[in-house]
């Protein structure tokens, strides 16, 4: 019997469809994942994780340039932004006036939410009032938790700085230290002052604060070294940030001091120094969480009316880590999440 052109066409189409199905099944069973898996992985980073409308969220911090801590905060924020279909805008200014102006610029752009630090809270009060008047929700992170609700923020995400300082003071006292040098690398930053005050509250010996310019590494190192040379009774140094811890190690060596070094915050270098036992312990406030949760909270609030912590601070720390924690920490710091 003769096969008609229509029948041949139909069989060809069926054969092609079957072949496509087989190839698709083979790709789906591939152990390597293939291009399809790569595309799906890319989708999770490109705002295709949710189907909610595109939002624009601005984060404005008091620090950030060349600071590994804020690199980790941004890493968390960007991850949440990718998942939540958020256009993430980041800016920073170490001057309080400049930071307030950046918040005003975000308000003018009619962003859907603002994440802000309150290191110098008084300078932020008026502009955060403007954000509230414009109907823009605000979440504060990292610093100024006691001012957060007062200034109209949904909540604060970070560690309680005084409590963190107390944990450090207690640990140093248990180790029998007698005199601690607490290095403040940014004058006027309420969070740093609270940390040193917390250390002083629980430390059994003497605590002396030393103000240095954290933006000038050579001068900061020289100031710490000079203090150690002038006062041999100092047997502990508390750095309030990971970059200062590295300078303290160098200053200690230069002064021939035997002081123990503890630090707030982690980065890859601090983990290396923990491993080498150049730094005894570090206070981890989990900056990745601060960035991630802040963006995620604003998305939840805008899409579902949720508020984390019922308006109370959401704590991300403190946690004291030592050389025993290095194996796990190395993996996370290598990818920029701790």
TrEMBL record:
Signal sequence annotation: 1-26
Domain of life of the source: Bacteria
Residue intervals of the Periplasmic binding protein domain: 57-301
Main location: other
UniProt-listed InterPro entries: Bact_Solute-Bind_Prot2, Peripla_BP_I, SBP_2_dom
Gene3D superfamilies: 3.40.50.2300
Record-linked SUPFAM superfamilies: Periplasmic binding protein-like I
Region (Disordered): 31-53
Entry-linked Pfam families: Peripla_BP_4 (PF13407)
Family (UniProt): Belongs to the bacterial solute-binding protein 2 family.
Name of protein: Sugar ABC transporter substrate-binding protein
Organism: Streptomyces kunmingensis
Lineage: Bacteria, Bacillati, Actinomycetota, Actinomycetes, Kitasatosporales
């Amino acid at each position: 019997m003769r096969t008609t052109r229509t029948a041949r066409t139909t069989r060809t189409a069926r054969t092609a469809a079957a072949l496509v199905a087989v190839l698709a099944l083979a790709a789906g069973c591939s152990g390597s994942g293939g291009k399809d898996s790569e595309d799906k992985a890319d989708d999770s980073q490109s705002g295709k994780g949710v189907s909610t409308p595109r939002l624009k969220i601005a984060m404005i911090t008091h620090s950030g340039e060349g600071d590994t801590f804020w690199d980790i905060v941004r890493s968390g924020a960007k991850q949440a932004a990718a998942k939540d279909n958020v256009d993430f805008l980041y800016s920073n200014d170490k001057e309080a006036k400049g930071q307030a102006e950046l918040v005003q610029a975000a308000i003018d752009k009619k962003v859907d939410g603002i994440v802000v630090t309150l290191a110098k809270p008084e300078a932020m009060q008026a502009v955060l009032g403007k954000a509230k008047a414009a109907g823009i929700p605000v979440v504060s992170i990292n610093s100024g938790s006691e001012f957060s609700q007062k200034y109209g923020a949904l909540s604060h995400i970070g560690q309680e700085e005084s409590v963190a300082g107390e944990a450090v003071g207690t640990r140093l006292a248990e180790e029998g230290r007698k005199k601690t040098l607490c290095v403040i690398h940014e004058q006027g930053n309420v969070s740093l002052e609270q940390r040193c005050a917390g250390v002083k509250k629980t430390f059994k010996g003497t605590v002396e604060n030393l103000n240095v310019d954290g933006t000038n590494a050579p001068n900061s190192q020289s100031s710490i070294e000079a203090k150690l040379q002038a006062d041999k009774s100092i047997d502990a140094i508390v750095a309030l940030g990971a970059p200062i811890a590295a300078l303290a190690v160098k200053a200690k060596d230069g002064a021939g001091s035997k002081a123990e070094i503890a630090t707030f915050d982690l980065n890859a270098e601090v983990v290396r120094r923990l491993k080498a036992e150049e730094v005894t312990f570090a206070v981890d406030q989990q900056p990745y969480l601060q960035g991630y949760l802040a963006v995620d909270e604003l998305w939840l609030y805008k899409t579902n009316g949720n508020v984390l912590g019922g308006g109370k601070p959401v704590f991300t720390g403190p946690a004291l880590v030592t050389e025993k924690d290095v194996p796990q920490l190395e993996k996370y710091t290598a990818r920029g999440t701790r």
